[in-house]
Amino acid sequence: MSDTILIFYGSYRSDRQGIRLADYLVRAFADRGASAELIDARALDLPMLDRMYKEYPAGEAPEVLETLAGKIRAADAFVFVAGEYNWSVQPGLKNLTDHFLEEWYWRPAAIASYSAGRFAGARAGLAWHGILSEMGMVVVSSALAVGGIGHALTADAEPGGEGGAALAKAFPRFADDLAWWTEAARRQRARRDPPY
C-alpha cells in the first residue's frame, strides 16, 4: 500500500530558499513509492487564524479549509519543512497548522528543518516537536536539518555540495523511520478506534 504523505511548507518570502527542500522531499518520497503532495501555505493564502475549521457550522467553512481538512484526514503521515525565524517557527506554517486540530490526530509527523546559517533550523525543529505532539501527532525521532539551504540544494531541488550530500545520505533513514510509524499507525487505526 502506498503511503499518502503531505509535505507542509510555510514561507511567504519572495525569495524562498526552503521551497527547494520541500520540492526535494516530494520527489524523494515519490521515488520511494509514496504519494507525496506539497501543501504550500503561501499558495493557499489562508487568513490569519480567526476561526478554526471545526468552529464553522457544517458546510460553511471556506472551500480552501474544507479541501485541506479532507486532505489532512486522508493522509497517512505528515512532513513539516520548518524554516527558522529568530530562533523560532515560521508564522505562515504555524498559522496553517493552527486552523486544524482533530484532523491531525493519530498519525506520525516528521520534521525537516533548514536555515541559511549553520544551525540548520534546529531550534525551529525543536519547537515544532512540542507543537506537533500537542496537536495529536506522533513525531518520529529522525529529523533532517539542512544548513546553508541556498547552497545545499539547487533551484531545481538537486542536492549540491557538502550540505546536499549530507541531506541525500540522511534521507533514507528519515524516510524509513516515518514509513515504520506510518504503517504502525495505519494498522492500529484499522484494528481499534482511537480512544477519543
The count of strands amounts to: 6
Task: Based on Cα principal axes, name the global outline.
Answer: globular
User: What separation lies between the terminal Cα atoms?
Assistant: 26 Å
Whole-number mean pLDDT: 96
Stretches where pLDDT falls below 50 for ≥5 residues?
Answer: none
- Class computed from helices, strands and strand pairing: alpha/beta
Helix content: 40-55%
Number of helices: 7
**Estimated radius of gyration:** 16 Å
Query: Helix and strand string, N-terminal first?
Result: EHEHHEEHEHEHH
Topology of helices and strands:
Elements: E1 4-9, H1 19-31, E2 35-40, H2 41-44, H3 63-74, E3 77-85, E4 88-89, H4 91-98, E5 108-114, H5 122-134, E6 138-146, H6 149-152, H7 161-191
Parallel strand pairs: 1-2, 1-3, 3-5, 5-6
Antiparallel strand pairs: 3-4
Please explain how this structure is put together.
It is a single chain. By secondary structure, the protein is an alpha/beta fold. The protein is 43% helix and 20% strand. It contains 7 helices and 6 strands. Strands 1, 2, 3, 4, 5 and 6 form a 6-stranded mixed β-sheet that branches. Helix 1 links the parallel strand 1 and strand 2. The longest helix has 31 residues. The radius of gyration is 16 Å and the shape is globular.
